[in-house]
Amino acid sequence: MTETHGSWMNRFSKHLPRISGLTSNRVIVLALIAVIGILYSPSFTALFNADDFSFLRYLYFNIQPLLSGRLWYEWLVGGIVNYAVFRPMGHVFWLLNYVTFGLEPYGYHVAAVLFHLITSFAVSILSYLLTRKRMTAAIAALLFAMMPVHAEAVSWLAANYDVWCAIYSFVSLIFYILYRQRLAPRFYFVALGAFVLALSSREIALALPIMLLVYDLVYHPGDWNRAPRVYVGYVPFWIAVAIRLIFFGHGYRGLILAPEGWFYYVDFNLLRVFDPWSGTIDEIRWVALACVAVLLLAYRLRPAVLFGLIWIPVMLAATTVGGVNDRSFYVASFGVSLLLAIVLTSLLTRKDMIANAVGLIGLILLIAIYSAMLFSRNQAYARASQVAQEIVQRVKELHPTIPPDARLVFVGVPDSVPEGAPVFGAGLPEALSIAYQRPAVAVSKFSKFPIWLDHLDHTYFFLADHRRVTERTDLIATLETRVRCASFSQPAITWDMTRDSEGWAPWNQLDGFENRSGALVTRSVGNDPFMGSPTIDIPAIAIGDIEITMRVNTTQPTFQGKVYWLASGQQDFSPALKQSFTGQADGEFHTYRVDIAQSGMLLLGDHITRLRLDPVDAPAEIAIKSIQVDTHCASGETSQCVCGQ
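Given the sequence above, the corresponding C-alpha coordinates read:
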Protein backbone atom coordinates (compact mmCIF):
# COMPACT_ATOMS: atom_id res chain seq x y z
CA MET A 1 0.00 0.00 0.00
CA THR A 2 2.87 2.33 0.86
CA GLU A 3 4.59 1.71 -2.45
CA THR A 4 1.38 2.27 -4.38
CA HIS A 5 0.77 5.46 -2.48
CA GLY A 6 4.31 6.62 -3.05
CA SER A 7 4.28 5.78 -6.75
CA TRP A 8 0.97 7.67 -7.18
CA MET A 9 2.51 10.62 -5.40
CA ASN A 10 5.55 10.52 -7.63
CA ARG A 11 3.47 10.42 -10.78
CA PHE A 12 1.31 13.32 -9.57
CA SER A 13 4.34 15.39 -8.60
CA LYS A 14 5.81 14.88 -12.06
CA HIS A 15 2.70 16.45 -13.55
CA LEU A 16 2.84 19.52 -11.33
CA PRO A 17 5.25 21.38 -13.63
CA ARG A 18 2.87 20.76 -16.50
CA ILE A 19 -0.06 22.01 -14.41
CA SER A 20 1.95 25.10 -13.54
CA GLY A 21 2.48 25.68 -17.25
CA LEU A 22 -1.27 25.82 -17.66
CA THR A 23 -1.41 28.80 -15.31
CA SER A 24 0.42 31.27 -17.51
CA ASN A 25 -1.40 34.51 -18.23
CA ARG A 26 -2.03 33.52 -21.84
CA VAL A 27 -3.61 30.22 -20.87
CA ILE A 28 -5.67 31.87 -18.14
CA VAL A 29 -7.04 34.42 -20.60
CA LEU A 30 -7.93 31.72 -23.13
CA ALA A 31 -9.57 29.61 -20.43
CA LEU A 32 -11.57 32.60 -19.17
CA ILE A 33 -12.69 33.45 -22.70
CA ALA A 34 -13.93 29.89 -23.22
CA VAL A 35 -15.63 29.54 -19.84
CA ILE A 36 -17.25 32.98 -19.78
CA GLY A 37 -18.25 32.75 -23.44
CA ILE A 38 -20.09 29.47 -22.85
CA LEU A 39 -21.69 30.23 -19.48
CA TYR A 40 -22.77 33.74 -20.46
CA SER A 41 -23.94 32.76 -23.95
CA PRO A 42 -27.62 33.24 -22.95
CA SER A 43 -26.80 36.92 -22.40
CA PHE A 44 -26.03 37.33 -26.09
CA THR A 45 -29.69 36.60 -26.90
CA ALA A 46 -31.01 38.78 -24.07
CA LEU A 47 -32.83 42.06 -24.63
CA PHE A 48 -33.51 44.98 -22.30
CA ASN A 49 -35.53 44.70 -19.10
CA ALA A 50 -36.68 46.64 -16.06
CA ASP A 51 -34.42 49.57 -15.10
CA ASP A 52 -32.53 49.39 -18.41
CA PHE A 53 -35.35 51.39 -19.96
CA SER A 54 -34.84 54.30 -17.53
CA PHE A 55 -31.40 54.92 -19.02
CA LEU A 56 -32.47 54.21 -22.58
CA ARG A 57 -35.45 56.57 -22.40
CA TYR A 58 -33.28 59.43 -21.18
CA LEU A 59 -30.69 58.83 -23.89
CA TYR A 60 -33.33 58.30 -26.58
CA PHE A 61 -34.84 61.74 -26.02
CA ASN A 62 -31.68 63.63 -25.03
CA ILE A 63 -28.88 62.17 -27.13
CA GLN A 64 -28.53 65.23 -29.38
CA PRO A 65 -28.23 67.73 -26.50
CA LEU A 66 -25.71 65.42 -24.82
CA LEU A 67 -23.61 65.08 -27.95
CA SER A 68 -23.67 68.84 -28.43
CA GLY A 69 -22.31 69.40 -24.93
CA ARG A 70 -25.54 70.17 -23.05
CA LEU A 71 -27.19 68.28 -20.16
CA TRP A 72 -23.85 66.88 -19.07
CA TYR A 73 -24.32 67.87 -15.44
CA GLU A 74 -27.76 66.31 -15.29
CA TRP A 75 -26.58 63.10 -16.94
CA LEU A 76 -23.28 62.65 -15.11
CA VAL A 77 -23.74 64.39 -11.78
CA GLY A 78 -27.32 65.48 -11.13
CA GLY A 79 -28.87 62.06 -11.61
CA ILE A 80 -31.72 61.04 -13.90
CA VAL A 81 -35.14 59.95 -12.67
CA ASN A 82 -34.87 57.13 -10.07
CA TYR A 83 -31.07 57.28 -10.23
CA ALA A 84 -30.12 60.30 -8.12
CA VAL A 85 -26.69 58.87 -7.31
CA PHE A 86 -23.17 59.85 -8.22
CA ARG A 87 -22.00 57.25 -10.75
CA PRO A 88 -20.70 59.28 -13.69
CA MET A 89 -18.37 56.58 -15.04
CA GLY A 90 -21.30 54.20 -15.31
CA HIS A 91 -23.25 56.83 -17.21
CA VAL A 92 -20.28 57.35 -19.52
CA PHE A 93 -20.42 53.67 -20.44
CA TRP A 94 -24.19 53.89 -20.99
CA LEU A 95 -23.65 56.86 -23.31
CA LEU A 96 -20.87 55.11 -25.25
CA ASN A 97 -22.99 51.98 -25.62
CA TYR A 98 -25.96 54.00 -26.83
CA VAL A 99 -23.90 55.96 -29.35
CA THR A 100 -22.44 52.69 -30.65
CA PHE A 101 -25.41 50.31 -30.49
CA GLY A 102 -28.52 52.51 -30.14
CA LEU A 103 -31.48 50.34 -29.14
CA GLU A 104 -29.85 47.06 -30.21
CA PRO A 105 -29.22 45.09 -27.00
CA TYR A 106 -26.68 42.61 -28.39
CA GLY A 107 -23.77 45.04 -28.24
CA TYR A 108 -24.57 46.09 -24.68
CA HIS A 109 -24.49 42.48 -23.50
CA VAL A 110 -21.29 41.67 -25.37
CA ALA A 111 -19.65 44.70 -23.72
CA ALA A 112 -20.90 43.61 -20.27
CA VAL A 113 -19.50 40.10 -20.71
CA LEU A 114 -16.21 41.56 -21.94
CA PHE A 115 -15.96 43.71 -18.81
CA HIS A 116 -16.56 40.60 -16.70
CA LEU A 117 -13.75 38.86 -18.58
CA ILE A 118 -11.39 41.76 -17.85
CA THR A 119 -12.41 41.76 -14.19
CA SER A 120 -11.84 38.01 -13.90
CA PHE A 121 -8.34 38.37 -15.36
CA ALA A 122 -7.66 41.21 -12.91
CA VAL A 123 -8.61 38.75 -10.16
CA SER A 124 -5.87 36.40 -11.34
CA ILE A 125 -3.25 39.17 -11.24
CA LEU A 126 -4.41 40.39 -7.84
CA SER A 127 -4.48 36.85 -6.44
CA TYR A 128 -0.95 36.20 -7.71
CA LEU A 129 0.36 39.39 -6.10
CA LEU A 130 -1.22 38.36 -2.80
CA THR A 131 -0.14 34.70 -2.83
CA ARG A 132 2.76 34.46 -5.31
CA LYS A 133 1.24 31.21 -6.58
CA ARG A 134 0.12 30.96 -10.19
CA MET A 135 -2.12 27.98 -9.54
CA THR A 136 -3.94 29.91 -6.83
CA ALA A 137 -4.30 32.88 -9.18
CA ALA A 138 -5.68 30.69 -11.97
CA ILE A 139 -8.20 28.92 -9.73
CA ALA A 140 -9.33 32.21 -8.13
CA ALA A 141 -9.91 33.78 -11.55
CA LEU A 142 -11.78 30.71 -12.81
CA LEU A 143 -14.05 30.53 -9.75
CA PHE A 144 -14.68 34.27 -9.85
CA ALA A 145 -15.66 34.05 -13.52
CA MET A 146 -18.10 31.21 -12.80
CA MET A 147 -19.77 32.37 -9.57
CA PRO A 148 -23.57 32.15 -9.99
CA VAL A 149 -24.07 35.21 -7.81
CA HIS A 150 -22.51 37.34 -10.57
CA ALA A 151 -25.32 36.75 -13.07
CA GLU A 152 -27.23 39.83 -11.91
CA ALA A 153 -24.27 42.22 -12.14
CA VAL A 154 -23.28 41.01 -15.62
CA SER A 155 -26.48 39.93 -17.38
CA TRP A 156 -28.67 42.78 -16.14
CA LEU A 157 -27.35 45.90 -17.87
CA ALA A 158 -28.67 48.30 -15.23
CA ALA A 159 -26.53 46.46 -12.66
CA ASN A 160 -23.27 46.73 -14.61
CA TYR A 161 -22.08 49.50 -12.26
CA ASP A 162 -20.72 46.82 -9.93
CA VAL A 163 -18.63 45.30 -12.73
CA TRP A 164 -17.15 48.69 -13.63
CA CYS A 165 -16.49 49.43 -9.97
CA ALA A 166 -14.76 46.05 -9.57
CA ILE A 167 -12.45 46.62 -12.54
CA TYR A 168 -11.20 49.95 -11.19
CA SER A 169 -11.06 48.72 -7.57
CA PHE A 170 -8.96 45.69 -8.49
CA VAL A 171 -6.68 47.76 -10.73
CA SER A 172 -6.24 50.29 -7.93
CA LEU A 173 -5.28 47.57 -5.46
CA ILE A 174 -2.97 45.86 -7.98
CA PHE A 175 -1.00 49.03 -8.62
CA TYR A 176 -0.94 49.95 -4.93
CA ILE A 177 0.64 46.56 -4.21
CA LEU A 178 3.15 47.12 -7.01
CA TYR A 179 3.92 50.54 -5.58
CA ARG A 180 4.52 49.11 -2.09
CA GLN A 181 6.72 46.37 -3.53
CA ARG A 182 8.78 48.52 -5.90
CA LEU A 183 8.29 52.03 -4.47
CA ALA A 184 7.71 53.43 -7.97
CA PRO A 185 5.63 56.64 -7.79
CA ARG A 186 4.02 55.97 -11.18
CA PHE A 187 2.31 52.90 -9.73
CA TYR A 188 0.95 54.98 -6.85
CA PHE A 189 -0.63 57.54 -9.15
CA VAL A 190 -2.19 54.82 -11.30
CA ALA A 191 -3.64 53.29 -8.12
CA LEU A 192 -5.04 56.66 -7.04
CA GLY A 193 -6.50 57.40 -10.47
CA ALA A 194 -8.15 53.98 -10.67
CA PHE A 195 -9.62 54.53 -7.20
CA VAL A 196 -11.19 57.84 -8.29
CA LEU A 197 -12.75 56.03 -11.26
CA ALA A 198 -14.02 53.29 -8.93
CA LEU A 199 -15.59 55.95 -6.66
CA SER A 200 -17.27 57.37 -9.74
CA SER A 201 -18.73 53.98 -10.64
CA ARG A 202 -20.31 52.66 -7.44
CA GLU A 203 -20.43 53.51 -3.73
CA ILE A 204 -18.79 50.19 -2.80
CA ALA A 205 -15.37 51.70 -3.58
CA LEU A 206 -15.68 53.96 -0.52
CA ALA A 207 -14.33 51.06 1.54
CA LEU A 208 -11.23 50.43 -0.60
CA PRO A 209 -8.84 52.71 1.38
CA ILE A 210 -9.55 50.52 4.41
CA MET A 211 -8.27 47.51 2.46
CA LEU A 212 -5.11 49.42 1.52
CA LEU A 213 -4.49 49.85 5.23
CA VAL A 214 -5.27 46.17 5.84
CA TYR A 215 -2.81 45.19 3.11
CA ASP A 216 -0.02 47.19 4.73
CA LEU A 217 -0.80 45.84 8.19
CA VAL A 218 -0.83 42.25 6.97
CA TYR A 219 1.96 42.28 4.38
CA HIS A 220 4.28 45.08 5.57
CA PRO A 221 3.85 45.32 9.35
CA GLY A 222 7.50 46.36 9.87
CA ASP A 223 7.29 49.34 7.53
CA TRP A 224 5.17 51.35 9.92
CA ASN A 225 8.12 52.33 12.04
CA ARG A 226 10.59 52.79 9.18
CA ALA A 227 8.56 54.50 6.46
CA PRO A 228 6.41 57.53 7.41
CA ARG A 229 5.46 57.86 3.74
CA VAL A 230 3.13 54.90 4.30
CA TYR A 231 0.92 57.18 6.38
CA VAL A 232 1.14 60.02 3.88
CA GLY A 233 0.21 57.69 1.03
CA TYR A 234 -3.29 57.18 2.47
CA VAL A 235 -4.10 60.88 2.58
CA PRO A 236 -5.03 61.41 -1.12
CA PHE A 237 -7.31 58.36 -1.01
CA TRP A 238 -9.20 59.68 2.01
CA ILE A 239 -9.34 63.16 0.47
CA ALA A 240 -11.06 61.58 -2.55
CA VAL A 241 -13.51 59.86 -0.19
CA ALA A 242 -14.21 63.15 1.60
CA ILE A 243 -14.80 65.00 -1.69
CA ARG A 244 -17.12 62.23 -2.84
CA LEU A 245 -19.22 62.34 0.34
CA ILE A 246 -19.24 66.11 0.89
CA PHE A 247 -19.73 67.41 -2.63
CA PHE A 248 -21.34 64.41 -4.34
CA GLY A 249 -23.01 62.73 -1.39
CA HIS A 250 -26.45 62.26 -2.91
CA GLY A 251 -27.35 58.62 -3.16
CA TYR A 252 -25.30 57.71 -0.09
CA ARG A 253 -26.41 58.49 3.45
CA GLY A 254 -23.80 56.58 5.43
CA LEU A 255 -24.00 53.22 7.18
CA ILE A 256 -27.29 52.01 8.60
CA LEU A 257 -26.53 49.93 11.67
CA ALA A 258 -29.97 49.38 13.21
CA PRO A 259 -29.68 45.97 14.93
CA GLU A 260 -32.61 44.34 13.14
CA GLY A 261 -31.50 45.66 9.75
CA TRP A 262 -27.89 44.72 10.42
CA PHE A 263 -28.69 41.09 11.22
CA TYR A 264 -30.91 40.83 8.16
CA TYR A 265 -28.10 42.29 6.07
CA VAL A 266 -25.46 39.93 7.48
CA ASP A 267 -27.65 36.84 7.16
CA PHE A 268 -28.55 37.39 3.54
CA ASN A 269 -24.98 38.16 2.56
CA LEU A 270 -23.91 34.95 4.28
CA LEU A 271 -26.27 33.15 1.93
CA ARG A 272 -24.33 34.67 -0.96
CA VAL A 273 -20.99 33.63 0.51
CA PHE A 274 -22.20 30.03 0.59
CA ASP A 275 -23.98 30.24 -2.73
CA PRO A 276 -25.02 27.85 -4.23
CA TRP A 277 -25.33 25.76 -1.04
CA SER A 278 -28.02 27.92 0.54
CA GLY A 279 -29.76 26.27 3.44
CA THR A 280 -31.45 27.66 6.53
CA ILE A 281 -29.74 30.75 7.85
CA ASP A 282 -29.28 29.27 11.35
CA GLU A 283 -27.19 26.45 9.91
CA ILE A 284 -25.22 28.78 7.67
CA ARG A 285 -24.21 31.01 10.59
CA TRP A 286 -22.57 28.07 12.33
CA VAL A 287 -21.01 26.82 9.09
CA ALA A 288 -19.60 30.30 8.43
CA LEU A 289 -18.07 30.52 11.90
CA ALA A 290 -16.60 27.04 11.53
CA CYS A 291 -15.09 27.90 8.12
CA VAL A 292 -13.50 31.08 9.47
CA ALA A 293 -12.11 29.21 12.48
CA VAL A 294 -10.63 26.45 10.28
CA LEU A 295 -9.10 28.96 7.86
CA LEU A 296 -7.50 30.97 10.66
CA LEU A 297 -6.22 27.85 12.37
CA ALA A 298 -4.96 25.99 9.32
CA TYR A 299 -3.61 29.03 7.43
CA ARG A 300 -2.78 31.37 10.28
CA LEU A 301 0.63 32.22 8.85
CA ARG A 302 -0.69 33.11 5.40
CA PRO A 303 -1.45 36.82 5.06
CA ALA A 304 -3.57 36.21 1.94
CA VAL A 305 -6.09 34.23 4.03
CA LEU A 306 -6.44 37.04 6.55
CA PHE A 307 -6.69 39.59 3.74
CA GLY A 308 -9.42 37.56 1.98
CA LEU A 309 -11.43 37.11 5.18
CA ILE A 310 -11.33 40.84 5.94
CA TRP A 311 -12.05 41.82 2.32
CA ILE A 312 -15.56 40.33 2.27
CA PRO A 313 -17.19 42.28 5.13
CA VAL A 314 -15.25 45.49 4.49
CA MET A 315 -16.18 45.69 0.81
CA LEU A 316 -19.81 44.97 1.71
CA ALA A 317 -19.96 47.70 4.35
CA ALA A 318 -20.85 50.52 1.96
CA THR A 319 -23.77 48.51 0.56
CA THR A 320 -25.83 48.58 3.76
CA VAL A 321 -27.63 51.65 2.40
CA GLY A 322 -28.74 49.96 -0.82
CA GLY A 323 -29.98 46.74 0.74
CA VAL A 324 -29.08 43.14 0.07
CA ASN A 325 -28.81 41.95 -3.52
CA ASP A 326 -26.63 39.77 -5.71
CA ARG A 327 -25.06 42.60 -7.67
CA SER A 328 -23.66 44.30 -4.56
CA PHE A 329 -21.77 41.10 -3.75
CA TYR A 330 -19.79 41.25 -7.00
CA VAL A 331 -16.78 43.13 -5.59
CA ALA A 332 -16.86 41.36 -2.23
CA SER A 333 -16.91 37.93 -3.87
CA PHE A 334 -13.22 38.32 -4.73
CA GLY A 335 -12.53 37.36 -1.13
CA VAL A 336 -14.55 34.17 -1.51
CA SER A 337 -12.79 33.15 -4.72
CA LEU A 338 -9.38 33.91 -3.20
CA LEU A 339 -10.04 31.82 -0.08
CA LEU A 340 -11.42 28.90 -2.08
CA ALA A 341 -8.41 29.01 -4.39
CA ILE A 342 -5.97 29.03 -1.46
CA VAL A 343 -7.61 26.00 0.12
CA LEU A 344 -7.82 24.05 -3.15
CA THR A 345 -4.23 24.86 -4.13
CA SER A 346 -3.04 23.76 -0.70
CA LEU A 347 -4.78 20.41 -1.13
CA LEU A 348 -3.66 19.89 -4.72
CA THR A 349 0.01 20.58 -4.02
CA ARG A 350 0.42 18.50 -0.88
CA LYS A 351 2.39 15.27 -0.96
CA ASP A 352 -0.64 13.36 0.18
CA MET A 353 -2.85 11.31 -2.12
CA ILE A 354 -5.98 11.81 -0.03
CA ALA A 355 -5.48 15.59 0.11
CA ASN A 356 -4.86 15.66 -3.64
CA ALA A 357 -8.04 13.68 -4.30
CA VAL A 358 -10.12 15.90 -2.00
CA GLY A 359 -8.76 19.02 -3.70
CA LEU A 360 -9.37 17.69 -7.19
CA ILE A 361 -12.89 16.48 -6.39
CA GLY A 362 -13.66 19.78 -4.67
CA LEU A 363 -12.49 21.78 -7.66
CA ILE A 364 -14.45 19.62 -10.10
CA LEU A 365 -17.60 19.87 -7.96
CA LEU A 366 -17.28 23.65 -7.68
CA ILE A 367 -16.79 24.00 -11.43
CA ALA A 368 -19.73 21.70 -12.21
CA ILE A 369 -22.18 23.26 -9.75
CA TYR A 370 -21.12 26.84 -10.45
CA SER A 371 -21.37 26.25 -14.20
CA ALA A 372 -24.84 24.72 -14.06
CA MET A 373 -26.25 27.41 -11.76
CA LEU A 374 -24.64 30.33 -13.59
CA PHE A 375 -25.88 29.14 -16.98
CA SER A 376 -29.38 28.66 -15.54
CA ARG A 377 -29.42 32.14 -14.00
CA ASN A 378 -28.24 33.72 -17.23
CA GLN A 379 -31.05 31.92 -19.03
CA ALA A 380 -33.47 33.41 -16.51
CA TYR A 381 -32.24 36.94 -17.26
CA ALA A 382 -32.58 36.30 -20.97
CA ARG A 383 -36.16 35.04 -20.47
CA ALA A 384 -37.02 38.03 -18.28
CA SER A 385 -35.86 40.45 -20.97
CA GLN A 386 -37.84 38.58 -23.63
CA VAL A 387 -41.00 38.74 -21.48
CA ALA A 388 -40.47 42.50 -21.05
CA GLN A 389 -40.03 42.98 -24.79
CA GLU A 390 -43.09 40.93 -25.71
CA ILE A 391 -45.32 42.86 -23.29
CA VAL A 392 -44.33 46.14 -24.91
CA GLN A 393 -44.67 44.75 -28.43
CA ARG A 394 -48.13 43.35 -27.72
CA VAL A 395 -49.39 46.68 -26.37
CA LYS A 396 -48.02 48.41 -29.46
CA GLU A 397 -49.81 45.87 -31.67
CA LEU A 398 -53.11 46.47 -29.88
CA HIS A 399 -52.73 50.25 -30.14
CA PRO A 400 -50.18 51.42 -32.74
CA THR A 401 -50.95 54.99 -31.67
CA ILE A 402 -52.44 56.51 -28.53
CA PRO A 403 -53.77 60.01 -27.80
CA PRO A 404 -51.50 62.47 -25.95
CA ASP A 405 -53.43 62.18 -22.68
CA ALA A 406 -53.79 58.39 -22.78
CA ARG A 407 -53.63 56.42 -19.54
CA LEU A 408 -52.38 52.84 -19.77
CA VAL A 409 -53.33 50.63 -16.84
CA PHE A 410 -51.79 47.18 -16.33
CA VAL A 411 -52.67 44.26 -14.11
CA GLY A 412 -50.54 41.13 -13.96
CA VAL A 413 -47.30 42.57 -15.31
CA PRO A 414 -44.64 40.47 -13.54
CA ASP A 415 -41.99 42.17 -11.46
CA SER A 416 -39.72 39.22 -12.17
CA VAL A 417 -39.65 35.69 -13.53
CA PRO A 418 -39.87 32.84 -10.98
CA GLU A 419 -36.07 32.55 -10.86
CA GLY A 420 -35.84 36.17 -9.66
CA ALA A 421 -34.60 37.99 -12.77
CA PRO A 422 -36.45 41.34 -13.10
CA VAL A 423 -39.03 41.95 -15.82
CA PHE A 424 -40.80 45.18 -14.97
CA GLY A 425 -40.38 45.91 -11.29
CA ALA A 426 -39.56 49.30 -12.81
CA GLY A 427 -39.11 50.58 -16.33
CA LEU A 428 -42.51 49.89 -17.90
CA PRO A 429 -43.42 53.59 -18.38
CA GLU A 430 -40.00 54.26 -19.89
CA ALA A 431 -40.25 51.24 -22.21
CA LEU A 432 -43.62 52.40 -23.53
CA SER A 433 -42.32 55.95 -23.81
CA ILE A 434 -39.65 54.68 -26.21
CA ALA A 435 -42.14 52.46 -28.06
CA TYR A 436 -44.53 55.37 -28.67
CA GLN A 437 -41.68 57.86 -29.17
CA ARG A 438 -42.99 60.20 -26.49
CA PRO A 439 -41.02 61.68 -23.61
CA ALA A 440 -43.72 60.60 -21.17
CA VAL A 441 -46.58 58.09 -21.19
CA ALA A 442 -48.98 57.76 -18.24
CA VAL A 443 -48.57 54.13 -17.14
CA SER A 444 -49.87 52.53 -13.94
CA LYS A 445 -49.51 49.03 -12.50
CA PHE A 446 -52.10 47.62 -10.10
CA SER A 447 -52.90 44.30 -8.48
CA LYS A 448 -56.52 44.81 -9.61
CA PHE A 449 -58.03 47.25 -12.05
CA PRO A 450 -58.78 50.65 -10.50
CA ILE A 451 -62.19 52.26 -10.38
CA TRP A 452 -61.50 55.42 -12.37
CA LEU A 453 -64.48 57.54 -13.33
CA ASP A 454 -62.91 60.25 -15.51
CA HIS A 455 -61.30 60.37 -18.98
CA LEU A 456 -62.48 56.85 -19.74
CA ASP A 457 -62.35 57.51 -23.49
CA HIS A 458 -58.56 57.79 -23.20
CA THR A 459 -58.03 55.03 -20.63
CA TYR A 460 -56.79 51.58 -21.66
CA PHE A 461 -56.89 48.51 -19.42
CA PHE A 462 -54.46 45.65 -20.13
CA LEU A 463 -54.25 42.25 -18.47
CA ALA A 464 -50.84 40.59 -18.68
CA ASP A 465 -50.44 36.86 -18.25
CA HIS A 466 -46.71 36.21 -18.48
CA ARG A 467 -46.00 37.09 -22.14
CA ARG A 468 -49.63 37.35 -23.25
CA VAL A 469 -51.38 40.74 -23.05
CA THR A 470 -55.12 41.26 -23.62
CA GLU A 471 -57.10 44.48 -23.52
CA ARG A 472 -60.08 44.65 -21.14
CA THR A 473 -62.43 46.94 -23.04
CA ASP A 474 -65.35 45.44 -21.08
CA LEU A 475 -64.13 47.25 -17.97
CA ILE A 476 -64.49 50.60 -19.69
CA ALA A 477 -68.15 49.79 -20.29
CA THR A 478 -68.56 48.84 -16.62
CA LEU A 479 -67.02 52.09 -15.42
CA GLU A 480 -69.09 54.14 -17.85
CA THR A 481 -72.19 52.54 -16.34
CA ARG A 482 -70.89 53.39 -12.87
CA VAL A 483 -70.53 57.03 -13.97
CA ARG A 484 -74.13 57.07 -15.18
CA CYS A 485 -75.24 55.55 -11.85
CA ALA A 486 -73.81 58.49 -9.93
CA SER A 487 -77.19 60.24 -10.15
CA PHE A 488 -78.79 57.35 -8.28
CA SER A 489 -78.01 56.96 -4.60
CA GLN A 490 -79.41 54.83 -1.83
CA PRO A 491 -78.30 54.29 1.77
CA ALA A 492 -76.62 50.94 2.35
CA ILE A 493 -75.67 51.40 6.02
CA THR A 494 -76.77 54.06 8.48
CA TRP A 495 -75.26 54.38 11.94
CA ASP A 496 -77.68 56.47 14.04
CA MET A 497 -75.64 57.70 16.99
CA THR A 498 -78.35 59.56 18.84
CA ARG A 499 -78.55 56.74 21.41
CA ASP A 500 -75.32 54.68 21.18
CA SER A 501 -72.07 54.40 19.24
CA GLU A 502 -73.48 51.78 16.82
CA GLY A 503 -70.30 49.70 17.09
CA TRP A 504 -67.87 52.52 16.39
CA ALA A 505 -64.89 52.60 18.78
CA PRO A 506 -62.31 55.25 19.77
CA TRP A 507 -58.89 54.14 18.53
CA ASN A 508 -56.62 57.11 19.13
CA GLN A 509 -56.56 60.47 20.97
CA LEU A 510 -60.32 60.50 21.68
CA ASP A 511 -61.56 61.02 25.23
CA GLY A 512 -65.06 60.73 26.70
CA PHE A 513 -66.59 58.55 23.95
CA GLU A 514 -70.26 58.55 25.08
CA ASN A 515 -73.81 59.34 23.98
CA ARG A 516 -75.61 62.33 25.38
CA SER A 517 -77.97 65.06 24.14
CA GLY A 518 -78.85 63.03 21.03
CA ALA A 519 -75.29 62.59 19.70
CA LEU A 520 -72.06 60.67 20.18
CA VAL A 521 -69.90 63.14 22.09
CA THR A 522 -66.13 62.91 22.32
CA ARG A 523 -63.10 65.13 22.67
CA SER A 524 -59.95 65.16 20.55
CA VAL A 525 -56.87 65.39 22.78
CA GLY A 526 -54.30 65.61 19.98
CA ASN A 527 -53.72 66.27 16.31
CA ASP A 528 -54.35 62.70 15.15
CA PRO A 529 -57.63 61.45 16.61
CA PHE A 530 -59.47 58.62 14.87
CA MET A 531 -62.25 56.11 15.41
CA GLY A 532 -63.07 52.81 13.73
CA SER A 533 -66.30 51.36 12.37
CA PRO A 534 -67.64 47.85 12.84
CA THR A 535 -67.03 45.46 9.94
CA ILE A 536 -69.04 46.07 6.76
CA ASP A 537 -69.25 44.45 3.32
CA ILE A 538 -69.89 46.76 0.37
CA PRO A 539 -68.56 46.20 -3.18
CA ALA A 540 -66.05 48.88 -4.08
CA ILE A 541 -67.76 49.42 -7.46
CA ALA A 542 -71.01 50.34 -5.69
CA ILE A 543 -69.89 52.56 -2.83
CA GLY A 544 -70.83 56.23 -3.00
CA ASP A 545 -70.75 59.08 -0.48
CA ILE A 546 -69.87 58.66 3.16
CA GLU A 547 -72.24 61.14 4.87
CA ILE A 548 -71.08 62.40 8.27
CA THR A 549 -73.35 64.66 10.33
CA MET A 550 -71.38 66.23 13.15
CA ARG A 551 -70.60 69.36 15.13
CA VAL A 552 -67.11 70.62 15.93
CA ASN A 553 -65.90 73.26 18.38
CA THR A 554 -62.23 74.26 18.17
CA THR A 555 -60.07 77.37 18.18
CA GLN A 556 -59.71 77.34 14.38
CA PRO A 557 -62.55 78.36 12.02
CA THR A 558 -62.10 75.23 9.89
CA PHE A 559 -60.69 71.74 10.30
CA GLN A 560 -59.52 68.86 8.13
CA GLY A 561 -61.13 65.45 8.42
CA LYS A 562 -60.29 62.20 6.66
CA VAL A 563 -62.03 58.95 5.85
CA TYR A 564 -59.86 55.84 5.46
CA TRP A 565 -61.11 52.49 4.21
CA LEU A 566 -59.99 48.92 4.53
CA ALA A 567 -60.39 46.80 1.40
CA SER A 568 -60.63 43.02 1.17
CA GLY A 569 -57.24 41.40 1.54
CA GLN A 570 -55.73 44.27 3.55
CA GLN A 571 -54.48 43.65 7.07
CA ASP A 572 -54.38 47.29 8.13
CA PHE A 573 -55.33 50.74 6.90
CA SER A 574 -52.99 52.24 4.32
CA PRO A 575 -51.94 55.93 4.39
CA ALA A 576 -52.70 56.07 0.66
CA LEU A 577 -56.30 54.89 0.94
CA LYS A 578 -58.02 57.97 2.26
CA GLN A 579 -60.16 60.92 1.19
CA SER A 580 -60.05 64.26 2.97
CA PHE A 581 -62.76 66.84 3.63
CA THR A 582 -62.87 70.34 5.12
CA GLY A 583 -65.38 71.25 7.85
CA GLN A 584 -66.67 74.30 9.68
CA ALA A 585 -65.77 74.56 13.37
CA ASP A 586 -68.70 76.87 14.25
CA GLY A 587 -70.44 74.69 16.85
CA GLU A 588 -73.29 73.84 14.47
CA PHE A 589 -74.22 70.47 12.95
CA HIS A 590 -73.21 70.02 9.30
CA THR A 591 -73.41 67.05 6.96
CA TYR A 592 -70.19 66.33 5.08
CA ARG A 593 -70.25 64.09 2.03
CA VAL A 594 -67.02 62.25 1.23
CA ASP A 595 -66.92 60.42 -2.09
CA ILE A 596 -64.10 57.91 -1.72
CA ALA A 597 -64.62 56.67 -5.30
CA GLN A 598 -63.16 59.98 -6.50
CA SER A 599 -59.84 59.06 -4.90
CA GLY A 600 -59.05 56.72 -7.80
CA MET A 601 -57.76 54.18 -5.28
CA LEU A 602 -60.71 51.79 -5.23
CA LEU A 603 -60.18 48.53 -7.10
CA LEU A 604 -62.61 46.43 -9.11
CA GLY A 605 -63.48 43.20 -7.36
CA ASP A 606 -62.70 44.54 -3.89
CA HIS A 607 -65.10 44.89 -1.00
CA ILE A 608 -64.88 47.68 1.56
CA THR A 609 -64.74 45.92 4.92
CA ARG A 610 -64.20 48.72 7.45
CA LEU A 611 -64.00 52.51 7.72
CA ARG A 612 -61.84 54.76 9.83
CA LEU A 613 -62.88 58.34 10.55
CA ASP A 614 -60.36 61.02 11.51
CA PRO A 615 -62.95 63.64 12.49
CA VAL A 616 -60.54 66.57 13.05
CA ASP A 617 -56.85 67.40 12.92
CA ALA A 618 -56.53 69.34 16.18
CA PRO A 619 -57.85 69.32 19.76
CA ALA A 620 -61.62 69.89 19.57
CA GLU A 621 -65.04 69.09 21.02
CA ILE A 622 -66.91 66.71 18.67
CA ALA A 623 -70.52 65.56 18.50
CA ILE A 624 -71.63 63.06 15.82
CA LYS A 625 -75.29 62.41 15.05
CA SER A 626 -74.94 59.89 12.22
CA ILE A 627 -72.67 58.29 9.66
CA GLN A 628 -74.19 56.86 6.48
CA VAL A 629 -72.75 54.89 3.57
CA ASP A 630 -74.53 55.40 0.24
CA THR A 631 -74.29 53.17 -2.80
CA HIS A 632 -74.92 53.88 -6.48
CA CYS A 633 -75.38 50.32 -7.69
CA ALA A 634 -78.38 48.19 -6.85
CA SER A 635 -76.61 44.85 -7.39
CA GLY A 636 -74.19 43.25 -4.98
CA GLU A 637 -71.76 42.16 -7.67
CA THR A 638 -68.11 43.04 -7.26
CA SER A 639 -67.30 43.95 -10.87
CA GLN A 640 -70.63 45.08 -12.37
CA CYS A 641 -72.93 47.99 -11.66
CA VAL A 642 -76.70 48.21 -12.17
CA CYS A 643 -78.08 51.62 -11.30
CA GLY A 644 -80.23 51.86 -8.23
CA GLN A 645 -83.74 53.26 -8.28
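Residues 284 and 441 are 46 Å apart (CA to CA). Try to locate this feature in the C-alpha coordinate string yourself.
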